[in-house]
Write a structure and sequence with these properties.
The complex is a heterodimer of chains A (about 350) and B (about 325). Helix content of chain A is about 70%, strand content about 0%. Chain A is mostly helical. In chain A, the strands form two sheets. In chain A, strands 1-4 form a two-stranded antiparallel sheet. A two-stranded antiparallel ribbon of chain A has the order 2-3. In chain A, strand 2 and strand 3 form a beta hairpin. The longest helix of chain A has 28 residues. Chain B is mostly helical. Chain B is built from 14 helices and no strands. The longest helix of chain B has about 35 residues. The chains are: A mainly alpha (about 350), B mainly alpha (about 325).
């Protein structure tokens, strides 16, 4: 009743193959976009932007990237942190080398550079799979972080070994550096999230996405029906790298402003993004958002509830977060392997029939 | 002999000793993988948890004291007694057996017949969970572990090598002890799996689950058994590592090092785990010694993984593994 598709007829092919063929979905999507673009920027303050909204948006991009690789193409990667570092450092080098070009272009280019690097590390996937591949991405994680620490060219020979983003403007508005307003940070991330989500959504339901899913479900069968495994896998690595690189670039330039690579892009980051994908739902764009929202909000919530509300020490909240996150992973894998996205699908089914379920 | 060669030889010996610890962790992996096909990422955290529990019991810490203090506003930390090392070890083994039973009952029984990668991700979740529980139970500060293992430079080797080459090798007593323990542990495991009824059942399950089931071997019993043994191995590894550099979070990171060890040795081979560990230990120390200074040092962080990556490309089943890898 609430969620209805009855009477929703398509009269032309473009109408039938649009991103959201059901009217209710489409309007909901427009409404969310309108609120995100037109309402939130006027109300967002520093705390909300820095603690919740900006990390949520950035992790959503990273989660979409990993979801394409792991959820759609079935290649497990534990190198997300290292790949985000590639995006961050590429963005830094570009920002300092070509200050006259817009930072938005730099962020996109950083995505491109990361895509190339990730494809390189994806080459072993042509011979191996499963957790053998996971180990080769682990090699990427540790090697890349070590390289960014040890090769001074990457951090422009600065004494501290840290990189800091210089102040850059878009249309006269400061978007990077310490003087950035909360709403400007939020808007930049939102624009990239919208761009990435639309791109990912359309890629995954197009022929590329079908090839990825065919490889994921059974690679031999996919090869027999004419999917080129080489192209399918490498394109998944490249596209995933592009998104993860954008996330890394935003994480560095817009969100944190200054980073130290082992701290910001360590192995924990890889696991965090992987957890987002599992909890949110493997093979779902909506799931990437849900998982990112969940794991960004959970520590904030625990902290406010336990430290702010009950006056417990912070390390207790931290330990509880570990227990809850780990426990949830297990619970989701056992009860709902398709994550929050599947819960949403089930809810939609229920809403279609409500209030007459028979 | 030139100094450089002597230094390299000393580095190599120390690498061998470090490799023993990698082997111990890898051993736990192989046991579980052979018996149940689960790639247990939590092995390193199990070592951490076992070591934390051992220290906690020895010092008479109150479990969950921080949590209790936070909820009830009390201020308790210790029972005020000290448990002797042997009793504490026995109690810790019991805790690990209980843990094995819980893991089997609440997690992996519900994940039977899932894809290996799903099981792997479940163990990552388990690792996080266990890490949180360990910290919550015993506190997250770095603890000293002293169960009476000898430490410090071995004088005999020092003077022997000094007389022979004019340069005394620095070898830690603890490392020598660790090597002995590892040898004994492997010997016990081999005897157990070759000469006991349970061991035979274990090998049968490793060979073929369904055939083992059909001759009346209880799978869930074997799985609890094998997780308990892995817990015991984790306790040994955690104790030695903890005695060496304190019980702290970085202990769980040696689990990651065990992955390349297994790539090298093969996932299904116990001798492979031992030799793979030794190769990685020696390899990373030698590489750091010979090549490290040229490229900025701290290569130990990634050397093992890159070596494993190269191995994957040329010999995916490892040195001793069966050819189970699926080619694409």
């Amino acid at each position: 009743m609430l969620y209805r598709e009855a009477g929703d007829y398509s009269t032309s092919y473009p109408e039938d193959s649009q991103t959201f063929p059901i009217k209710f979905d489409r309007y909901r999507y427009y409404a969310i976009l309108a609120v995100a673009f037109l309402v939130i920027p006027f109300f967002v303050n520093d705390y909300w932007a820095n603690a919740v909204l900006v990390p949520f948006l950035i992790y959503s991009i990273a989660a979409i990237g990993l979801n394409i690789l792991t959820g759609y193409c079935g290649q497990v990667s534990l190198g997300t942190g290292g790949f985000m570092a590639v995006g961050a450092y590429a963005c830094y080098k570009l920002m300092t080398a070509f200050p006259e070009i817009s930072v938005m272009v730099h962020i996109l280019l950083a995505g491109g550079v990361t895509a190339a690097v990730v494809t390189l590390f994806g080459l072993p996937s042509l011979r191996i799979k499963g957790f053998y591949l996971a180990v080769s991405t682990l090699a990427a994680q540790f090697f890349l972080v070590w390289m960014f620490n040890k090769v001074p060219w990457f951090y422009n020979y600065s004494m501290t070994g840290m990189i800091g983003s210089p102040e850059r403007t878009v249309l006269g508005i400061v978007v990077t550096g310490p003087a950035t307003d909360a709403w400007a940070k939020y808007m930049v991330c939102l624009i990239f999230v919208t761009f990435c989500a639309v791109l990912a959504r359309n890629m995954t339901r197009g022929s590329v996405g079908r090839k990825w899913m065919a490889i994921r479900d059974m690679d031999i069968a996919a090869e027999i029906i004419g999917v080129n495994p080489l192209m399918a896998k490498l394109s998944a690595f490249a596209v995933s790298g592009f998104f993860i690189g954008i996330a890394g670039a935003l994480f560095f330039s817009v969100y944190l402003g200054a980073i130290e690579v082992t701290e910001a892009f360590g192995i924990e980051k890889s696991f965090l993004v992987l957890f987002m994908v599992i909890i949110g739902g493997l093979g779902s764009i909506f799931g990437s958002f849900a998982g990112a929202a969940f794991l960004v909000l959970l520590p904030v919530l625990l902290k406010n509830l336990l430290v702010g509300g009950l006056g417990w020490p912070t390390d207790l909240a931290q330990h509880l977060y570990f227990i809850i996150a780990g426990g949830l992973i297990i619970i989701f894998l056992i009860l709902e392997p398709h994550g929050l996205a599947q819960l949403w699908r089930v809810a939609k089914e229920k809403l279609r029939l409500w209030p007459f379920p028979h | 002999m030139p100094d450089q060669v002597l230094f390299a030889a000393e580095v190599m010996l120390n690498g061998l000793m470090a490799g023993v610890l990698y082997s111990l962790v890898a051993l736990g992996f192989v046991l579980i993988f052979k018996a149940s096909g689960i790639f247990n990422y939590a092995q390193g955290v199990m070592a951490l948890f076992a070591a934390l529990t051992l220290v906690g019991i020895m010092d008479g810490q109150v479990p969950f004291s921080h949590l209790i203090n936070a909820i009830f506003g009390t201020n308790i930390h210790h029972f005020g007694w000290h448990t002797p090392a042997l009793l504490a070890i026995i109690l810790t083994v019991m805790v690990m057996v209980l843990f094995a039973w819980l893991v089997q009952k609440f997690i992996f029984r519900h994940l039977v017949n899932q894809e290996p990668i799903i099981l792997f991700m479940a163990t990552i979740g388990l690792a996080y969970f266990l890490e949180g529980v360990g910290d919550l139970m015993w506190g997250s500060d770095i603890k000293k572990l002293d169960v009476g293992i000898p430490k410090g430079i071995n004088e005999t080797i020092d003077s022997l090598t000094y007389n022979a080459f004019g340069y005394g090798f620095f070898i830690d007593n603890l490392d020598i002890f660790a090597t002995f323990v590892a040898v004994i542990l492997v010997a016990i495991l081999v005897c157990f799996s070759q000469y006991t009824k349970q061991g035979r059942a274990l090998r049968a399950v490793a060979d073929d689950h369904q055939a083992a089931l059909s001759v009346g071997i209880s799978l869930s019993y074997i799985w609890i058994l094998v997780w308990s043994i892995a817990g015991f191995v984790a306790l040994v590894a955690g104790t030695i590592w903890g005695a060496k550099s304190g019980v702290q979070f970085s202990l769980s990171l040696i689990a990651l090092k065990a992955l390349p060890v297994l790539m090298l040795g093969g996932f299904t081979s116990i001798p492979g785990a031992i030799i793979g560990g030794l190769i990685i230990g020696v390899g990373e120390k030698l590489f750091e010694f010979l090549v490290g200074p040229w490229i900025g040092g701290a290569t130990e962080n990634w050397f093992a993984y890159v070596l494993a990556l190269l191995f994957l490309v040329f010999r995916p089943q490892g040195l001793f593994g069966e050819k189970i890898i699926e080619r694409v």
